[in-house]
Amino acid sequence: MKIKALWKKGHAFESWQEENHIKIDGDRISGVSPKSLLLSGLAGCSGIDVVDILEKMRIEFSDFSIDVETQQTEEHPKVFKEIIITYKIKTDPSNEDKVRKAVELSLDKYCGVSAMLRKNSPIEFKIVIKQ
Length: 131
Hints:
By secondary structure, the chain is of the alpha+beta class. It is 34% helix and 37% strand.
């Protein structure tokens, strides 16, 4: 894996991985902050796993979204305290245990981003079944 980051101005950068690029801005004016990218990476990594696992289980679902929140320590380097992930998914309520199993497999076994972040910050999750 390799990326390139090009400074634009102030605290703003553009980062490339192959042909894909994102805007990063520590001031959150022209892009997302570096730490929010970590949380986005966690949501994406785990979300991909959950989708794959639920599809293998043949669980029907839609309207799947993931919210990730945390607070930072006051002292430098400011790192994440506990990370809380809320998985919101539209599926039959009888599938809740299978959704929980998919989330647990993702966070505990498959998602490398969660494994890296967990070394510093505990990760908790909630599941909201929408109808």
